[in-house]
Structures are given as C-alpha cells and as structure tokens.
Amino acid sequence: MLNSLSGRFLILTVAFVMLAEILIFVPSVARSRLNYLELRLEAAQIASLARVADDSLDESLERELLENAGVYNVVLRRDEFRQLALSSPIPAPIHATYDLRNATAMTVIRDALATLADPQRRIIRVIGSPVQEGGRLIEITLEQGPLRREMIEDGLRVLTLSAVITILTAGLLFLAVRVLLLRPINGVVGHMRAYAAAPEDARLIIEPTASVTELREAEEALRSMQTQLTGALRQRARLAQLGSAVAKISHDLRNILASAQLFADRLEETEDPLVRRMAPKIVASLSRAISLCESTLAFGRVEEPPPRLTRVPLAAIVSEIVDGERLAAGETDISFSENIPAGLTVRADGEQLYRVILNLVRNARQAISASGKPGEIGLSADEDDEAWWIFVTDTGPGLPPRAREHLFQAFQGGATKGGTGLGLAIASEIVQGHGGRLELRRSDVRGTEFAIRLPKENAQLAPLLPLEESPALEQTSPPAHPHGGTEAAE
Questions:
Q1: How many domains does the chain have?
Q2: Do 99 and 208 fall into the same domain?
Q3: pLDDT, tens digit, for every residue of 333-357?
Q4: Does 62 have pLDDT greater than 80?
C-alpha cells in the first residue's frame, strides 16, 4: 500500500497539509495571546471606572473587581498623572513587561512562543491603550499561568481542526488520484500485458482514450511503438517464410544447374570455333550460379562461408564482368570503362570478389537502363601502403533516399523498384569477411560511386559506420583515381 503511487501520494498530502497547519498554528496562538491580554485590559479599565465613580469602595469590593478582571493591579493614566486605580498584593516580582501599543506581528509571535515555552508561574506587566478614549494608557499586572493555559487550549483546538481537515483533504485527494490517474494507468498497464502476450495481434494495439494530457501522450506513444513492433514482427514472419521458400528453390535450382553444367562441359568438344570460345564462359557462369545458390542457402542459415584468400589478378575478374554486362546491356546506350593497373593482384577469394563487383556493376547498369538515358560505368583500382581500393562509378540517377538509409540491410535497401536489397547486403558481408569495408562514397544527380577497401593486413577492421561518422575514412582515405572517386566524394 505505502509503495503504491496512491499510498505515497496520500503520505505526501498528509505531510504537506500538516506543514501548512503548523505554519497556521504559530500565528493562531499569537492571536489568542493578544486577544486574551486585550480582554484583560478592557475588563481592568471597566473595573477602574467603578473606582473613579466611587472613591469610597471598601477593600472587599475592590478585590472582587480585580478578581473579575483577572489582574492584581490597574494603573490608569487619564491626563498627565499616573493613577493607581485598583491594587492588591502581588505574590511575586514582575518578570517581564509587554507594551501592546506599538507591537509588531513578529514581536507578538516572539512573545507568544516565549510564553508557551515558560511553564513557571510568572507575574507580568501589560501596557495598552484604553478603549473609547478612556485615557492615555492603561497598565495591568497579572499572572502568566492562565494566559498560557488559554493559549494551549486554543492551540489544541486549532490542531484538532487541522487534523480533521487533513484527513478529509487527504481522503478526497486519494480518491481523486485513484479515479483520475491510477485507473487510467492501470488500464495502460493492462493493455501492455495483453499486447505482450500476443504482440502479433493488431487488435490488441491500444486506442488512446485518456482525458489527461500526459496520459494521452503516453498512450499515443505506446500505440506508435506497438504499431511499429507489430509491423516488424509481421515482416519478420514474412521474411522467414520467404527465406524458407528461397532455400528450397535454391536447393532445387542448384541440382538443375549442376546437370546443365555437365551438358555444357560437352560443348568444349565441338568443332565450331565460336562455340569453343564461348563454352568456358558458359561453364564459368553455371559454376557461379551454383555457387550463388549455395551462398543463398548459407545466407538463409545466417552463414556466409569464410573466404579462401589467395592472390588473384583483379584485371581478369573485372574484364570478365564487363564482358558479361556488355552482353546484358544489349542495344542500350551504356558504355563501360576499365582502368585496372596491369599486374595488380589482391589477396581475396576470387569467386566472392567476383560476386561483389558484379553486384555493383549490375546495379549500376540496371539504374542507367531504368532512367532511359545514356550512361557510363567505370571500374578502376589503386593501392596504398595499407589497402587495395576498387572503385565502381556510374553516371546514373543516384540512389533514392530510402535506399541510402537502409543501404546494406537485406530486404530494405533495394535501389530499384521491386528490388530486395539482398545483393548489397551480401556484398557488404563478403567484404567484411575479408576484413574490409564497402562504402557508398557518393550518390547524387551526377551518379553513384562505391569503394571497396581490402586491407593488406590480416587485422579486422572496426564495424562499418556511416560515411560521415567513420573515423577510418578520414584516416585511410583512398588515393586519387582516374574516375575522380576522391574528388567526387568531396
């Protein structure tokens, strides 16, 4: 109970109300003391008037007047003379004198607290102004004990009333908090528990109904989060189903391509020179298709096979890719350029590097073809003391914003309509497996440029960062190359 929000609110309410009542208590007892003394002054003035009217009062009547007024002596100054109007024996010396004529609020409060703190039977003198212009001043002598008792009684009445007000206020606030705050909060908690039990059920997404602004904002934020999570779970379920289907298709396609490769091997025995020249390319393409099927199966198992690092001639790989893409481009007005230093070899898995560069070149060709305008695709390479750099540039329309945002995420970074983005995700994973990095250097209306960095050291690079956040990019910037990769990136 005390650990709940309503219990703690109740405790705080009681504490703050009691603090307010304590602040009220001190002025209350000070006012009680002032009222008591003013009443004693007024009663003493009335008693002294009887003495002025009849100067022959006997001693018993004078004592009775003093007892009724609650004082020992009364001094009344009417003109310039100070006159002892009524008197009786004082049981003790006068302890203190209080002048009420010009007393400030702080003085009254200070004297009241001093009276409460002094339980001794003291005799005090009080000076005040007579009522109804009955003189210039009136001075009385009285015992402090009855005054203190009166103040304590008034203080207890104030505290009792404060306690009643505190209980009523705290109870009402407690009920208000439970109705206005805790009930809606419990409703939100109930929605969250129900949604957690079945997050894929869109019917359990909360509908904001709270009238309190803060609670409604919380409900709207929760609805937004639940909507995104439900959508992500549905997408993940569809991707899991798609991955299962792709794995089955890739398995069967691999077997079909293996059979086709056996027949293609027989083409090398023909006497036709053109067939004999094209047969190795067909066999190589079938081999790569089989490898792609196996890689797709591995990707479905979240396993990209580790690269078999050897020294491979980069120019031969690029030349073979360009030859195949020229055939695929057909009659379209797309040109290709190669600027690979003769004899440049890189340490990589030849088949995997082929797939990475082919993905980038094919994406560039498809982007230019979709634009309906002529364009150029350039491949170049260079090296420095730390790494080999391979650049793939094009003069296409550039990547759309959504593709740049999720560039290397499978099924999210598709650069063309209907694309899945799987190619770039696999390419990035392959390059990272080599300890390198695949970067988007530039993508705008002038075209797109990708850079592949393959380190000469065996040490792995840090995880891939966005272009503007990557410290490695500043420390290991690529060398200038004929296609203007470094300048274009700027």
A1: 3
A2: no
A3: 899 999 999 889 999 999 899 989 9
A4: no
